Amino acid sequence: MQPPATPEKLSHAALFTGFFQAGIIGFGGVLPVARRIMVEQKHWLTAAQFTDLFALCQFLPGANIVNFSFAFGARHRGVSGAAAAVAGLLAAPVAIVLGLGALYQRYGNLPLARHGLTGLAAAATGLVLATALKIATPTFTHVKNIGISALALALVLLAHLSLPVTMAIVLPVSLFVAWRG
Amino acid sequence: MLLTLAAMFARLSLLAVGGVNSTVPEIARQVVTIRHWATPQQFAQMFAIAQAAPGPNMMIVTVIGGREAGIAGGVVATLAMMLPAGTLVIVVSKLWDRYRENRWRRIIQAALLPITAGLVLAAAAVLVTQADTSALTVAITAISALALWRTKIHPLWLLTAGSIAGLVLG
Fold first, then answer.
1. pLDDT in tens, A2-46
2. Least CB-packed of A50, A73, A80, B47 within 10 Å?
């Protein structure tokens, strides 16, 4: 029997530390790590509460776990709570990424580095391709979605329209189609 | 430069439907095609570095900001990318209980899903043109994609394998 989720407000320090833990070990996806830390280790939320809040974060634009940090932090300590949670989440990743970026600037052109980076880039491309397929396959079971996706794809890749303009065109069309059911 | 970075990414924050991958084609367009801050291959490499590091899937903006304006650039780019969307999250989460079951919420969600699919496919296509310039890279991409799509192998292993393949076979 799981203990009930922590009802009282978490401190700023707790928010920062909890999200810091998730951020620093979250390679290739912070979500499962965050879930384990918050639901199973710290009992900050029940599994159901986590899933529900996460659904909100998926629905809104932005990186899911970043949105989650904003929402969860705000629930406990308002805007400063959100700041603590997000700062915790991103502190280590930003520092590490800036460090790696600096190394890349300096040594990225060395032959050995170049070969490794080329391979790395190809693999990362594969990961995005897999992500795209994972999103597309269930979505395309509804035929009308294929048209909307194709439109977005064409506007971006073929017409080279900016994202704001693309969205201004595709979103109303998609809303209309979704509304008509 | 800091203002340029801030404006560029703040503009995209609310358009990152389904995640930051949806904005990758536009970021690439800005960075490579319009501003010539990096070559296509460099963009793909920076994207990969951002993927390899821990953290959420938005660190590409940090890498770009860092490249253009050091630590300040990295921080500004990151803040710009997440503050507009984060503000929206805080506002909506207060109203979530009221609107979770609302009909329009479901309609909006249904409308955003195929757009996300199209944009992330576009992101994949952009990266493929940038990164897959040889038989080896095509193979690495194909194998990594298949592995992530169909198996439970952790992405970090796939990135490591790709780097090693590039080192050994490149």
1. 454 555 789 999 999 999 999 988 876 788 889 999 999 999 999
2. A80
Q: What pLDDT does A100 receive?
A: 96
Asked if A120 lies within 8 A of B92 by C-beta distance, the reply is no
Closest CA to A167 of B37, B122, B90, B59: B122
Count helices and strands in chain A by DSSP H and E runs: 7, 0
pLDDT at position B57 is: 87
Closest Cα to residue B116, out of A140, A149, A141?
A149
What are the CA-CA distances from residue A17 to residues A24, A89, B59, B122 (Å)? 11, 8, 20, 36
CA dihedral B142, B145, B150, B153 (to 10 degrees): 110
For the cut 60, the answer to whether the pLDDT of residue B154 exceeds it is yes
Q: Does A161 touch chain B (CB under 8 A)?
A: no
Tokens for B113? Answer: 């899903």
Is B156 within 8 Å of B52 (Cβ atoms)?
A: yes
Look at the block and give the residue holding tokens 């393949």.
B165
Return the percentage of chain A with pLDDT > 90, whole number. Answer: 81
pLDDT on residue A41: 92
Instruction: Measure CB to CB from residue B86 to each of A23, A66, A122 and give the nearest one.
Output: A66
Secondary structure letter of residue B54 according to DSSP: B
CA atoms within 13 A on the CB side of A56: 29
Partner A contacted by B147 (CB < 8 A): yes
What single-letter DSSP state applies at residue A27? B
pLDDT attached to residue A98: 97
